[in-house]
Amino acid sequence: MHTIHHLFHINSPIVKVFLALTDVDKLKQWYTTDVKGSSKLNETLSMTFGQATFDVKIIEREESKRLVWECIDSSMPFIGQITSFSLDTNDEKTRVRVSISGFEALDDMYANLNFSWAKYLESLRQFCQNGTSEAFGSKGYRS
Fold first, then answer.
1. Domains in the chain: boundaries
2. Model-level pTM?
3. Does domain 2-130 match CATH 3.40.50.10860?
4. Which among 30, 77, 105, 138 is placed 20 to 30 Å from 50, CA to CA?
5. What is the pLDDT of residues 6-15, one digit of tens each?
6. How far apart are the first and last CA of the chain?
7. How would you write 32-77 as a 3-class SS string?
């Protein structure tokens, strides 16, 4: 199995970044405008990106430190994938480590998801730092 890894910094307090990852209304600002559910431990979030749907279960949640999703249902071949967000402080910024595991091959799907996650993570950074973002389905979204 293969894993996508991203590491970047956000010039914003760790509490604000964690809230952007866990508050449904904030997820709608930077990730996709179509999010339903709860990001409490053992709860489910449902997200839609056009025709693609994803349901993720929150399998780990440590306040302002770590959040882990497991894909439990999807219109894409992502069931069983694990997405983890790990946060810490580095040089007065929030350091964010993201891993998406469960890819069987280093193929076009892997490459596409790697690029897409980078785009959404930059949207997360802009949302936390400036209050602007490019969530899927938003007015400012670059397709």
1. 2-130
2. 0.95
3. no
4. 105
5. 999 999 999 9
6. 29
7. ECEEEECCCCCCEEEEEECCEEEEEEEEEEECCCEEEEEEEEECCC
